[in-house]
């Protein structure tokens, strides 16, 4: 008997303990899950802000007739076969090609190792693909560019003539596709040569003078076009010149350590786009081709890596063995710095995966080539050389707030009005019916709202813009007119009903007003002319079919119910005795509401505003379907916009899981998370204050 | 609070003020905003219904003779009218035959219309892959032998086509006539006079809308509704039904419910009954509350990064290493979508359950404990039954939210067209790795990027109406349950 009871109680105790453990696991598991979301988002986004690291990775010593050359991929290393008179230490490397100057010849090598593994003791030896004969030239003046299987080479010969050769390398046998020459004026001799295939031209910079030879705006190289002049704003002597990242700008460093950037994209004249103090005496300037990274090397071997558009300094230091006398270059992906010297070929590893996503780059205006002023641009999918990605989150944040605020414009008055009427004026039986009905609207699928906005409302808004903008006037005006009428009737006969059938009167007058509008509305052409003259000509607004007003109209419907629910709860929670007291002292119902109930409920009102705003900021489907998704920063009510959430929805499925864009979109999500979490927490604190206040008042 | 003497508003002043006060303009205004909000809800549902239901009703076929660029005749359904610049109306006609005309839509200038009729013998042939053809049936061809049908009544024609095309689909059947088993194609004269041949195998349905009686139209309406609910979409989703999307949505929501309910309820019990009341519990509670306000797309981002790439990718590396790099679980799919949705709805379940637990009078708990029950027993036998309506309310709200939510699904598993259903008769019956179709995504996809939206508009509105109906009904159920719960406890307390 005893043992039986024991068995039962043991089983009961065991069950009790098991339940406790399960519940604890679930509870703490939930806590862990919440933290995991935050931790995971942060862990993906965090590397975006990391600085660059540069460390020596390998050195090949030149021995005898073996001269190692590293290809632009940074991995392939080959040995150049000895050619009479060639100067391998002046080699230029681009894509899979190395170009080595001789005394009166240029040798072009294809740099392909037999195996990708780099084994310094047994380098593959490659012979020139082709050797081109030129008049005697300055070997150190050789400059090259490469795009779409075409290799362009420029040298200055000893008579001061520019020699240009373009090789087409798509076929098995290289074909010379262009050959031209230009006699330089004496004062332009010995300058830096910068062939720029993005603009089909060759740039020559000598001191503060420049020369553009070729098709400045044409699609093909035009040898007869020559433009020259002085670089405005460069006061002291030029110490280094190079093309900027992507080849869309010209970068000049002067003796004062100033880095000047000149735009090459639109005008004939290179225009000063911006200057920056690098605080070093620059000897060499280099740029990456596919990312906005510029490197500056000083005479004492200091290396500075810089994001030129934002000014973010990525790295500053003295990498071991960096020599200011030899021309280095970046590998194509920017993870290796290469320098071919007379005795050594050196390679440094650069750990710089996210150069373009510093705080300044993401949020502050950037000085981008091709724009008149500092701008915010989100254009993440630049791929080809010459069109670089532009990462700025500002237009997205702007669009997010714009959409949410336009939504609030409709939602706040509606929610407030409805909350006051239902929570204060209506008897509780009607309240219990109406409140759930309005709250149902909260569950309305936003994809349907967005669809209705984009497909049905957008064309309607475009045709009847003025009429639709006039609707709020009716919405506010009619109740005021009715109240005036009621007051007048009461004035005439004081016995007139103090409780007019408000809802009935309002419903019928609203219906009548809409009917009148439908029947007597001017035809679309007249409206069109009116809109044209008022909005577009007078105010100078632009109109996109999917715009902020459209999204505001629908977003308002989406965020109104949540706000209404909280506001109504707050008004209803204020003890009736307070308001009754003021009424007994002779206040009208409205006075009692405004002076007694509102102040008491105000923390919760504020909380409702915050929650409404947070919902608007995070809303995705409506914004996606009703805004046109153009990432522009304009205050215009009828211009398109793009929100953070819509950007995630559009771009994340396409972004590779290792790309910069992927991490940026996680940062975007983190920003959204942080914003809404902050607002909701504040709202919750406000609401709790109200709850505590009335926990005492009700007693 | 200001004293009455200091505040002039409490003292009767000018007659104007008195009038304004008596008129209570702001009361009227607030009443107006209630009305506008209600009207918006009704207008939205009304708009959906108004646009969706005509999609199923057989539209009359208009034969329009016009002088636009020489005399032309067009036969089709009128879709839309817009006023052109000259003050006259332009008419948008859906003339069918995507393969015949290039675009199935044509704008007709009303001023050039000479004549418009609704010929009784016009028929609409629905085809599987190329959309409908509107015309007049002139003949049937069976193995090179042509038979003229112009003499027959349109009802006979329709019947014949129906019998013949059905035969070609299901094979010869004993009840069919000799012609039926042999039929290969139908000759249809278009409005322009051109006669085209349509293979019997392509025809899915045929009807003569202009000759239909109202009863027949009602029948057609319901059969179209049935098709909408029970068939797969065709022609890149602009035709057919939404059955796979319904299956996908329901499977997702069920899986999510299975995942979220134990965790949510246990977590709520932990917070309400087990955790010690202190700052940490308070912070956790606030965090859970706020999680309900975090944008749904953020959950999608987390789901894609953590569930799909991190967890799914690792599972692939362990269990499906032989099929890599083609991902099995490391790609968006049903399982990850359900997990993401469960995470998204977790706060809803927790908050609602907690509210229910808090409303259970502590007398019940204490009584049960006093009688010797363990904590788990009194929880299981007394507290949870008392709170069960709240738990159910939370679950229904979670289901409603998950049904209407699309944004996270864009990232973690939804597809424009999924070849296989997530549930099927083949092993393992529930395909957690498959992508799936979803009602909400279907609306987004067609609304955002469909080429001929005008012809599919009715379909999308119908889908929207279906989705809204489901979500609103679920919400209504939750509201009623909650109301009942509150009343029950009010009765108990008094």
Keywords:
heterodimer, A: 699 residues, alpha+beta, 4-stranded antiparallel β-sheet, 14 helices, elongated, B: 494 residues, 6-stranded antiparallel β-sheet, 5-stranded antiparallel β-sheet, 13 strands, 55% helix, disordered N terminus
Task: Write the topology of this structure.
The complex is a heterodimer of chains A (699) and B (494).
Chain A: H1 2-45, E1 53-61, E2 67-70, E3 77-80, E4 92-94, E5 97-101, E6 105-110, E7 124-126, E8 130-133, E9 143-147, E10 150-156, E11 161-168, E12 175-183, E13 192-196, E14 201-206, E15 209-214, E16 226-230, E17 238-243, E18 249-254, E19 258-263, E20 271-277, E21 282-287, E22 294-298, E23 303-306, E24 313-317, E25 328-330, E26 336-340, E27 344-351, H2 359-363, H3 394-425, H4 428-440, H5 446-463, H6 465-492, H7 502-520, H8 524-538, H9 548-573, H10 576-584, H11 589-618, H12 621-626, H13 644-651, H14 660-697
Parallel strand pairs in A: 3-7
Antiparallel strand pairs in A: 1-27, 2-3, 4-5, 5-6, 6-8, 9-10, 10-11, 11-12, 13-14, 14-15, 15-16, 17-18, 18-19, 19-20, 21-22, 22-23, 23-24, 25-26, 26-27
Helix pairs in contact in A: 1-14, 3-9, 3-11, 4-9, 5-9, 6-7, 9-11, 10-11, 11-14, 13-14
Chain B: H1 15-23, H2 25-52, E1 62-66, E2 72-83, E3 89-94, H3 98-101, E4 105-109, E5 113-117, E6 122-127, E7 133-142, E8 145-148, H4 154-170, H5 178-182, E9 185-189, E10 195-199, E11 203-207, H6 214-230, E12 233-234, E13 239-240, H7 243-274, H8 279-291, H9 296-319, H10 334-359, H11 362-370, H12 375-404, H13 409-412, H14 439-449, H15 453-493
Antiparallel strand pairs in B: 1-2, 1-5, 2-3, 3-4, 6-7, 6-11, 7-8, 7-9, 9-10, 12-13
Helix pairs in contact in B: 2-15, 7-10, 7-12, 8-10, 9-10, 10-12, 11-12, 12-15, 14-15
């Amino acid at each position: 008997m005893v043992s039986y009871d024991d068995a039962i109680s043991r089983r009961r105790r065991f069950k009790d303990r098991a339940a406790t453990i399960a519940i604890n696991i679930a509870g703490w598991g939930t806590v862990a899950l919440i933290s995991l979301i935050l931790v995971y988002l942060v862990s993906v986004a965090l590397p975006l802000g990391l600085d660059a690291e540069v460390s020596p990775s390998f050195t090949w010593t030149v021995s005898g007739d073996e001269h190692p050359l590293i290809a632009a991929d940074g991995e392939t290393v080959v040995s150049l076969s000895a050619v009479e008179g060639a100067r391998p230490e002046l080699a230029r490397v681009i894509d899979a090609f190395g170009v080595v100057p001789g005394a009166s010849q240029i040798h072009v090598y294809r740099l392909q190792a037999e195996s990708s593994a780099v084994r310094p003791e047994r380098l593959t030896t490659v012979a020139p693909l082709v050797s081109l004969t030129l008049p005697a030239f300055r070997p150190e003046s050789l400059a090259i560019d490469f795009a779409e299987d075409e290799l362009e080479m420029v040298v200055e010969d000893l008579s001061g003539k520019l020699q240009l050769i373009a090789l087409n390398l798509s076929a098995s046998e290289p074909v010379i596709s262009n050959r031209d020459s230009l006699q330089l004026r004496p004062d332009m001799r010995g300058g830096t040569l910068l062939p720029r295939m993005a603009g089909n031209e060759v740039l020559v910079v000598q001191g503060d003078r420049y020369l553009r030879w070729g098709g400045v705006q044409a699609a093909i190289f035009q040898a007869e076009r020559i433009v020259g002049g002085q670089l405005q704003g460069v006061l002291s002597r030029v110490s280094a010149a190079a093309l900027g990242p992507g080849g869309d700008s010209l970068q000049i460093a002067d003796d004062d350590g100033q880095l000047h950037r000149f735009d090459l994209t639109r005008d004939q004249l290179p225009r000063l786009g911006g200057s920056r103090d690098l605080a070093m005496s620059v000897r060499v300037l280099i740029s990456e081709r596919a990312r906005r990274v510029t490197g500056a090397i000083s005479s004492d071997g200091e290396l500075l890596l810089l994001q030129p558009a934002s000014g973010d300094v990525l790295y500053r230091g003295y990498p071991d063995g960096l020599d200011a006398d030899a021309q280095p270059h970046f590998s194509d992906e920017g993870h290796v710095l290469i320098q071919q010297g007379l005795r050594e070929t050196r390679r440094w590893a650069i750990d710089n995966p996210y150069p373009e996503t510093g705080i300044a780059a993401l949020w502050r205006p950037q000085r981008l080539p091709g724009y008149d002023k500092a701008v915010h641009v989100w254009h993440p999918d630049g791929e080809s050389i010459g069109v670089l990605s532009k990462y700025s989150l500002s237009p997205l944040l702007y669009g997010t707030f714009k959409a949410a605020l336009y939504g609030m414009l409709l939602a706040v008055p509606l929610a407030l009005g409805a909350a006051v009427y239902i929570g204060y004026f209506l008897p509780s039986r009607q309240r219990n019916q109406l409140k759930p009905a309005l709250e149902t609207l909260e569950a309305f699928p936003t994809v349907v709202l967005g669809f209705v906005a984009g497909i049905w409302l957008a064309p309607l808004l475009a045709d009847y813009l003025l009429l639709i903008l006039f609707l709020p006037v009716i919405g506010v005006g009619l109740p005021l007119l009715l109240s005036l009428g009621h007051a007048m009737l009461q004035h005439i006969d004081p016995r007139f009903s103090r409780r007019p059938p408000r809802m009935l009167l309002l419903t019928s007058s609203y219906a009548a007003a809409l009917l009148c509008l439908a029947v007597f509305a001017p035809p679309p052409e007249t409206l069109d002319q009116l809109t044209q003259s008022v909005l577009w000509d007078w105010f100078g607004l632009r109109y996109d079919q999917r715009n902020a007003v459209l999204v505001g109209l629908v977003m308002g419907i989406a965020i109104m119910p949540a706000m209404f629910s909280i506001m109504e709860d707050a008004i209803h929670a204020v003890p009736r005795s307070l308001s009754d007291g003021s009424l007994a002292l002779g206040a009208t119902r409205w006075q009692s509401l405004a002076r007694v109930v509102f102040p008491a409920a105000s923390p919760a009102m504020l909380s409702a505003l915050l929650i409404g705003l947070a919902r608007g900021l995070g809303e995705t489907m409506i914004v996606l379907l009703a805004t046109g998704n153009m990432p522009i920063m304009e205050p215009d009510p009828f211009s398109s916009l793009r929100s953070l959430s819509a950007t995630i929805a559009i771009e994340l499925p396409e972004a590779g899981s290792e790309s910069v864009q992927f991490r940026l979109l996680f940062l975007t999500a983190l920003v959204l998370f942080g914003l809404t979490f902050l607002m909701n927490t504040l709202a919750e604190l406000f609401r709790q204050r109200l709850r505590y206040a009335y926990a005492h008042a009700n007693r | 609070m200001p004293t009455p003497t200091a505040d002039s508003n409490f003292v009767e002043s000018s007659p104007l003020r008195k009038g304004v006060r008596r008129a209570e303009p702001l009361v009227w205004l607030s009443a107006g905003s209630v009305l506008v909000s209600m009207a918006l809800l009704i207008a939205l549902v009304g708009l959906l219904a108004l646009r969706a239901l005509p999609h199923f009703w057989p539209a009359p076929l208009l034969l329009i003779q016009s002088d636009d660029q020489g005399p032309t005749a067009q036969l089709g359904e009128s879709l839309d009218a817009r006023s052109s610049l000259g003050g006259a109306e332009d008419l948008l006609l859906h003339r069918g035959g995507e393969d015949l005309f290039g675009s199935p839509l044509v704008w007709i200038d009303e001023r050039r219309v000479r004549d418009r009729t609704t010929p009784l013998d016009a028929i609409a042939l629905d085809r599987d892959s190329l959309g409908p053809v509107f015309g007049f049936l002139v003949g049937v061809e069976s193995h090179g032998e042509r038979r003229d049908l112009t003499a027959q009544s349109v009802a006979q024609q329709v019947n014949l086509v129906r019998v013949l095309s059905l035969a070609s689909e299901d094979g010869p059947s004993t009840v069919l006539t000799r012609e039926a088993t042999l039929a290969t194609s139908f000759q249809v004269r278009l409005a322009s006079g051109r006669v085209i041949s349509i293979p019997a195998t392509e025809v899915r349905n045929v009807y003569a809308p202009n000759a239909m009686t109202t009863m027949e139209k009602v029948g057609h309406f319901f059969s179209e509704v049935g098709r909408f609910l029970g068939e797969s979409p065709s022609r890149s989703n602009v035709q057919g039904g939404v059955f796979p999307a319904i299956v996908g949505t329901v499977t997702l929501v069920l899986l999510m419910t299975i995942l979220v309910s134990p965790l949510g309820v246990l977590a709520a019990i932990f917070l309400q009954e087990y955790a010690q009341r202190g700052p940490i519990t308070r912070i956790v509670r606030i965090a859970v509350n706020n999680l309900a306000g975090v944008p749904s797309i953020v959950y999608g981002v987390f789901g894609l990064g953590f569930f799909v790439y991190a967890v799914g990718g690792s599972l692939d590396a362990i269990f499906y290493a032989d099929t890599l790099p083609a991902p099995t679980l490391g790609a968006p799919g049903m399982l990850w979508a359900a997990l993401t949705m469960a995470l998204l709805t977790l706060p809803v379940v927790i908050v609602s359950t907690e509210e229910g637990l808090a409303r259970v009078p502590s007398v019940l708990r204490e009584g049960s404990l006093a009688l010797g029950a363990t904590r788990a027993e009194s929880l299981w036998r007394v507290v949870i039954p008392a709170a069960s309506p709240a738990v159910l309310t939370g679950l229904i709200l979670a289901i409603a939210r998950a049904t209407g939510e699309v944004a996270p699904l864009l990232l973690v598993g939804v597809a424009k067209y999924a070849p296989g259903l997530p549930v099927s008769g083949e092993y393992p019956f529930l395909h957690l790795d498959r992508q799936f179709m979803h009602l909400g995504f279907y609306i987004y996809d067609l609304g955002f990027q469909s080429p001929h939206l005008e012809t599919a508009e009715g379909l999308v509105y119908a889908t929207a109406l279906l989705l809204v109906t489901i979500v609103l009904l679920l919400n209504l159920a939750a509201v009623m349950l909650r109301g009942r719960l509150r009343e029950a406890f009010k009765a108990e307390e008094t």
